[in-house]
Automatic annotation (TrEMBL):
Biological processes, Gene Ontology terms: endoplasmic reticulum to Golgi vesicle-mediated transport; intra-Golgi vesicle-mediated transport; protein transport; retrograde vesicle-mediated transport, Golgi to endoplasmic reticulum
Coarse class of the protein's main subcellular location: membrane
Entry-linked PANTHER family: COATOMER SUBUNIT EPSILON (PTHR10805:SF0)
Location(s) in or outside the cell: Cytoplasmic vesicle, COPI-coated vesicle membrane; Golgi apparatus membrane
An annotated Gene Ontology molecular function: structural molecule activity
Name of the protein described by the UniProt record: Coatomer subunit epsilon
Length: 157
């Protein structure tokens, strides 16, 4: 939980130090691997591959891949610009949990990155708004829509 707290306040350096300590006594523990993968996602660059392999190992180690784990794999793939693979993982995650807001939010992003038709993007966004109207993605998008409308009204006056 401390790693998550550090990452949420953008202290990747402290999260990495903690995961390094964690590795010394719990290297093979799934929670240690998960913390290491999260930190790698925050670092970015070549660490995206590292995070992907950790998430993939966790998915293979468990008897059932969860929607969250598949979404984490898809996020890594999107960062690596491997959009078809990311979309396939997200669709698999959607089959497991059709109302998971993180799956739906990432499907919206992936659909934009792959230039899917507007109907596809709108369908995923509508599902997300219905499933989780207070999801940070929805709240941020609605705030940006309102800001755009306010600026457009000011400029047209």
């Amino acid at each position: 939980m401390t790693v998550v707290a550090y990452l949420s306040i953008n202290r990747v350096d402290l999260a990495q130090k903690l995961t390094a300590k964690l590795r010394t006594w719990a290297e093979d523990a799934p929670i240690a691997q998960l913390a290491e993968a999260w930190a790698a996602l925050f670092v970015g660059g070549p660490k995206y591959n590292e995070a992907f392999y950790i998430f993939e190992e966790l998915a293979q180690a468990s008897s059932v891949s969860t929607a969250r784990l598949l979404t984490a794999l898809a996020v890594c793939k999107m960062h690596l610009a491997q959009y078809p693979e990311a979309e396939a993982l997200l669709l698999e995650a959607l089959e497991k949990d059709s109302n998971d807001p993180d799956v739906l939010a990432n499907l919206v992003v992936c659909a934009n990155l792959t230039s899917k038709p507007l109907e596809t993007k709108s369908r995923y966004l509508s599902q997300l708004k219905h499933a989780a109207p207070t999801h940070p993605f929805v709240v941020d998008l609605e705030a940006k829509d309102a800001e755009f409308d306010a600026i457009a009204a000011r400029l047209s006056a």
